[in-house]
UniProtKB/TrEMBL annotation:
The gene is seqA. The keyword DNA-binding applies. InterPro entries: Arc_rbn_hlx_hlx, Ribbon_hlx_hlx, SeqA, SeqA_DNA-bd_C, SeqA_DNA-bd_C_sf, SeqA_N. Belongs to the SeqA family. Keywords: Cytoplasm, DNA replication inhibitor, DNA-binding. This is Negative modulator of initiation of replication. Residues 1-34 form the Negative modulator of initiation of replication SeqA N-terminal domain. Residues 61-167 form the Replication modulator SeqA C-terminal DNA-binding domain.
Length: 169
């Protein structure tokens, strides 16, 4: 496997096209470029996608976007936390899939802050407001957007809503 450098906007676009947790960048690009899939051993079985209720999508997340609260907030970490808190309120069961979202070495979400601390030396775990979850916060804005995009995708949100929310972080 080769390593390539991508501009942040291309990386975010590819990450936003993820259909299931564990889908590799190669798989995403093959699908987008309509290239045949190579025979490979699956790393893990896809996680079932929880569907948000129509009321949750329309009222909670959309209300947050429409309210202007995110735009008023100067710090991306606070916008990130507001989005996570709203996603949990909209669909607590679907939000539990957040614990499946991981980086190469780091665990991003957990109900145990020690699990996050154990996955890296400078993770700076913080509690997601009004939820039983913790999230690492020592990441750049692009990584936070990627984490939200993966979470929202696994929760069943559409690409347009995901792009709108991630653009607001």
């Amino acid at each position: 496997m080769k390593t390539i450098e991508l501009d942040d906007d291309l990386y975010f676009y590819i990450a936003s096209q993820t259909r299931h947790i564990g889908e590799s960048a190669s798989d995403i690009l093959r699908r987008l470029l309509e290239q045949p899939a190579h025979q490979r051993v699956p790393v893990a079985e896809p996680v079932a996608v929880a569907q948000p209720s129509a009321v949750a999508t329309q009222q909670g997340l959309q209300a947050l976007l429409d309210s202007g609260e995110l735009q008023k907030e100067e710090k991306s970490i606070n916008r990130f936390m507001q989005v996570l808190s709203t996603l949990y309120r909209d669909n607590p069961e679907g939000f539990t899939q957040a614990t499946e979202i991981k980086g190469r070495k780091r665990v991003y979400f957990s109900q145990d802050p020690e699990a996050l601390r154990a996955s890296g030396s400078t993770t700076k775990p913080k509690p997601v407001p009004e939820t039983p979850f913790w999230v690492i916060t020592n990441t750049n804005t692009s990584r936070k957007q990627n984490m939200v995009a993966q979470l929202m995708s696994s929760m069943g949100y559409g690409d347009e809503v995901i792009a709108q929310v991630c653009g607001a972080i």
